[in-house]
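Dear H.,

Thanks for agreeing to be a second pair of eyes. The structure we're designing against is below in token form, covering all 214 positions.
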């Protein structure tokens, strides 16, 4: 503060040396001081007001009915601060957003069943990939140059073929182990299944007893 006073005194001295009237100098200083004091008082009052609890705005919501709602609003005017309306008609009653159903062949993490078109034989399998990818492998296997054939290929070599267009999805499960259990359960439930016996070797006998009772 002392430095500010010394600095101000020096400025007054400079103004006097340059022939400024002393009355004009101090009138200007007084106006400047008043302005600063007013600013300080204004800031102090604003801080005090901010510490006071603000009055909560009260709302009263009513169902909007033509003519009646506005009359009701006028009747309670002054009782509540603000009145709002709501409607029973919601947009979701008129606008329906649905995802297109996913084609079975595009589904993943499935347990599936393929039926023979020429007899009652069926095959149950599982895959984490798209079903169409796994079905494509089943179809192409008959053309592979290998001495060992899959059970599906062996059956097709007997002049039978499968209903590739109507493959059933028996279950959808993201977890591999759960999907394997479901696969074994569905294999066991087949009437005339192509699956090899070891395909169900991991299925606990307790499950088999339960499935036999279903």
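And this is the sequence the design step returned. I haven't edited it by hand at all.
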């Amino acid at each position: 503060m002392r430095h500010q006073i010394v600095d101000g005194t020096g400025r007054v001295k400079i103004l006097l040396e340059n022939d400024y009237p002393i009355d004009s100098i101090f009138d200007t200083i007084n106006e400047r001081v008043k302005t600063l004091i007013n600013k300080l008082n204004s800031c102090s009052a604003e801080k005090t007001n901010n510490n006071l609890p603000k009055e909560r705005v009260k709302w009263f919501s009513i169902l909007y009915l033509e003519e009646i709602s506005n009359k009701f609003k006028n009747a309670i005017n002054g009782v509540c601060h603000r009145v709002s309306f709501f409607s029973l008609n919601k947009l979701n009653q008129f606008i329906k957003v649905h995802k297109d159903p996913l084609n079975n062949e595009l589904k993943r993490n499935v347990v599936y069943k393929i039926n023979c078109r020429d007899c009652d034989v069926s095959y149950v399998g599982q895959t984490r990939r798209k079903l169409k990818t796994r079905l494509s492998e089943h179809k192409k296997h008959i053309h592979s140059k290998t001495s060992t054939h899959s059970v599906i290929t062996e059956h097709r070599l007997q002049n039978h073929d499968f209903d590739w267009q109507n493959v059933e999805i028996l279950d959808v499960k993201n977890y591999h182990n759960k999907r394997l259990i479901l696969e074994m359960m569905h294999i066991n439930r087949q009437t005339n299944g192509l699956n090899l016996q070891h395909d169900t070797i991991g299925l606990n006998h307790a499950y088999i007893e339960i499935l036999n009772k279903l």
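Two observations from my side: The CA atoms of residues 144 and 153 lie 10 Å apart. The chain has a mean pLDDT of 77.

Warmly,
E.
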